[in-house]
Amino acid sequence: MAEVAEQEEVKVVAPSEPLFSKKNRKLVTDPLTDNNPITIQVLGICSALAITAELKASIVMTISVLFVMGVGNVVISLMRNIIPSKIRIIVQLVVVATLVIIVDQVLKAFAYELSKTLSVFVGLIITNCIIMGRFEAFALGNGPWKSFLDGIGNALGYGVILIIVGVFRELLGSGTLLGINVLGDPIAKTGLYAIGYENNGFMLLSPMALITVGIIIWVQRSRNRALIEEN
Fold it and tell me: Are 27 and 149 in contact (CB under 8 A)?
């Protein structure tokens, strides 16, 4: 008598990747150092030159870009399978414009004076090539979580440079940080001003922002010579 053996179909389920695996952590850490969007990819230079005369403006711009890139990457990732390729750029612009409008309205409601200082540069986040580049190069081809980490990482890499430049420009140009006198009172001649120190007004001009970014690029490449491009 023939025996019929029933074979159970065994499904092999691949272990899911941890949320903060080494590969996922690199999405956040790489843009901070060896793949920085400003110093390595040379993107987003305009805002680095324009709004870094004050540290407060640099911080607010960083937070704004963090929100736009983090949320925007997730939205584009969720929509990636339903966006027709012919209109993907238009869809990306609509998404980023919506998020920038939200940021602009929040600034006008809660930090009106600062919103006037940033003025048109908040609106120019829409055309920031870092954001559009990450939408196109990463979010359209990856899941929401990876896209979120990529957006946060690149926004932090952008923001770190803005804040570093903002610190040097405000400190050496005005003697303040976040509007607080750090080097002393230039009118009452206290602190460093008592021994003849004077603020360098040139630091508040846009050319000095370019020079400061150039110095950061030089320091970064001198520490890691693998970043130096060969002719």
Answer: yes
